[in-house]
């Protein structure tokens, strides 16, 4: 089966991890610090806190922003459930705003109609690798005293209007799952423009430990002392994962180039094919294409999905609207809430897209899909 996504691991990646195994630190060591510094540089120079997954990054971000009961988080339904569930688990009410019909990115006009004085965070998702419209979302957030959050699990390495992902919203979360644009095995990171928010994210992911003597509430305990002021969790990335991530970062430009080449081949092959609609690129965005979300028209998406899988091509669907999940439906969210997102879901099919995909693999995907919809 040709997978729809796959990690690209080199001998240099393996050697980087092996070097850590031969060293003194397996976790919370120099590789983690170096990886966080490298992510910060990539993301506009802001504080970066690494962690165990993209979901952990979202939990950290919402906690660092003070999200809790009585707050509202406005977000998109066209995402993996963690974008919403990480806010809900802290007690916030999730408010779903519809997406742009062409790009599946959060629609600023829909957000503007839904924000209230209770809105704490506007959380957009860089669907398929394109940065959302943060230049339009930020003034909306500022007007109601909220913060913007970029769920950039798909888009690390991309830019919008010349600014890197990580510099577009108040807080940005990243994912380094194997199918993402670079990997640490499992892993993620939070990037924070405000250093105080970054410090809260760090302490939350580090079991709540405070190690700054100037902040201690218990004095004269000795040089070993550390204390907890607020509850936290252990979401710390290991040096093993960080070493892999550092090695992967050296190939990020190569990964981006190959993903762009494959996307261009798909676009050219499917242009004008009846029954298919190619992705729409937003002006001013240089995407780090993570998905290739072709749209299968005429109500044939499931048929095509099943026949592509039968032909040995691992297509996927990204994503079921979040509020369709029973955990949200049981709370009263109803189908029909976001028509654009639901229509996009009904047509979306993610084709194989990863750096090690060969041209012959791409041609096989193209020929199979064109034959099936013909």
TrEMBL record:
<dbReference type="InterPro" id="IPR015421">
    <property type="entry name" value="PyrdxlP-dep_Trfase_major"/>
</dbReference>
<comment type="similarity">
    <text>Belongs to the DegT/DnrJ/EryC1 family.</text>
</comment>
<keyword id="KW-0663">Pyridoxal phosphate</keyword>
<dbReference type="InterPro" id="IPR000653">
    <property type="entry name" value="DegT/StrS_aminotransferase"/>
</dbReference>
<dbReference type="Pfam" id="PF01041">
    <property type="entry name" value="DegT_DnrJ_EryC1"/>
</dbReference>
<protein>
    <submittedName>
        <fullName>UDP-4-amino-4, 6-dideoxy-N-acetyl-beta-L-altrosami ne transaminase</fullName>
    </submittedName>
</protein>
<dbReference type="InterPro" id="IPR015424">
    <property type="entry name" value="PyrdxlP-dep_Trfase"/>
</dbReference>
<dbReference type="InterPro" id="IPR015422">
    <property type="entry name" value="PyrdxlP-dep_Trfase_small"/>
</dbReference>
